[in-house]
């Protein structure tokens, strides 16, 4: 069954608000995005639906649902408990599509049998719970099969089959063996992989191929990550490079996915729970990507997706939005001690955004940083008009390398600040401009400025072009009394949208607008001579919702500036 035909939703059990849904169900909703779920149910079946919810009956039932044009369609539906007590999980599929898929499956099986027959192959499936092996082989009428014990299967393999039997019993991620048949000129090749679901070994499947001695082993068989069932880092990387740099498949899109706050899961709930979360989220990613692409694990809490038709940006957006929403609903904040995580995703498309894999990865990785810095739990599809150019991103990477700061997103802001402080306390001379450059890169702030007590911008760091004359001409707003009266956090001021200053500090709004500032943080600090300064962190190209949990880190940034000014001057 094509996974895209099966809709999976998380719904509030009382209000029936749709908390998350797969991308295909968003297509089904069309312009009805703000409908609660019961509005999709046919009036005659609404009572049945509510009864199933109240009775917690998880059996399948048939129900009618309205299409976008108002016609009633028959659906098969199942309602189960959701991730939290106030939620339900709904699985449904349209009956007509289910029947069409079944007919298509029969057609595909017929082709598979012909291919098996052509190459003299048999399919094997091993079930660990019964230790049985089912062998399928093609026949004139279609296929035949037999069920035999693992012991009998081993006797049919020529030569020493102990290693193959061990691979099947242990559920090895992939296996391949070639056996020499002493009674004929044939070699027997057995190749396959093990299938897991949430860490449980379900079955091993593969094929048995007989041929002449021309058989050679496949050295580049796909390697599977044993925990998540996705491709390994090398496999998914090689696949992406082949699609982009070798075969030049236009529209190939890559998405880097990072699990937010995953370290907290391991630290507070243990690594076994962490592994459970990784398996669950990998299943969500695989299900939502479906036939649209390939999924791999980069290691730790990071996944990598290669999508085949990225020119259809709306389809890409639907997939990424569904991933984010489903994970967010599944691991939402709760009072039950369950893990709380979300996804940050960076995405870029070949050749629209870059003409080679290395540059495309650099851009997608940068988009992931942007998603993190904007507060996590979001996806960023590269848009040159709103984000940095490839040249600017590369320049940032070079700066990052010079500072000896880890460029991967596993470092949080606190760790980066500690690294800077360590560099300074080891008596390595670092100028204030270099510190500001580091801040503008690490936090992906579009601009960082230090103003002195006369409102003069003494140092500016930015990874985008800026007009220094405009900044200097508009800098007097720093001294505005209305602005200084609204500092919220003991010498720290956070403004998420400068339009609110129209009411609180009207003389400040226009200068900020001329400078291109959309949001900013101001932190006041002093040097050892009691000279006053303001560290201004500014968002220009992208509006940012500042994280109030990072107030202590913003203060620490100002303390680092004070330390450097005290030691090395301006």
UniProtKB/TrEMBL annotation:
<dbReference type="GO" id="GO:0043709">
    <property type="term" value="P:cell adhesion involved in single-species biofilm formation"/>
</dbReference>
<dbReference type="InterPro" id="IPR043128">
    <property type="entry name" value="Rev_trsase/Diguanyl_cyclase"/>
</dbReference>
<dbReference type="GO" id="GO:1902201">
    <property type="term" value="P:negative regulation of bacterial-type flagellum-dependent cell motility"/>
</dbReference>
<dbReference type="GO" id="GO:0005886">
    <property type="term" value="C:plasma membrane"/>
</dbReference>
<protein>
    <submittedName>
        <fullName>Diguanylate cyclase (GGDEF) domain-containing protein</fullName>
    </submittedName>
</protein>
<feature type="domain" description="GGDEF">
    <location>
        <begin position="250"/>
        <end position="384"/>
    </location>
</feature>
<dbReference type="InterPro" id="IPR029787">
    <property type="entry name" value="Nucleotide_cyclase"/>
</dbReference>
<dbReference type="GO" id="GO:0052621">
    <property type="term" value="F:diguanylate cyclase activity"/>
</dbReference>
<dbReference type="InterPro" id="IPR050469">
    <property type="entry name" value="Diguanylate_Cyclase"/>
</dbReference>
<dbReference type="Pfam" id="PF00990">
    <property type="entry name" value="GGDEF"/>
</dbReference>
<dbReference type="InterPro" id="IPR000160">
    <property type="entry name" value="GGDEF_dom"/>
</dbReference>
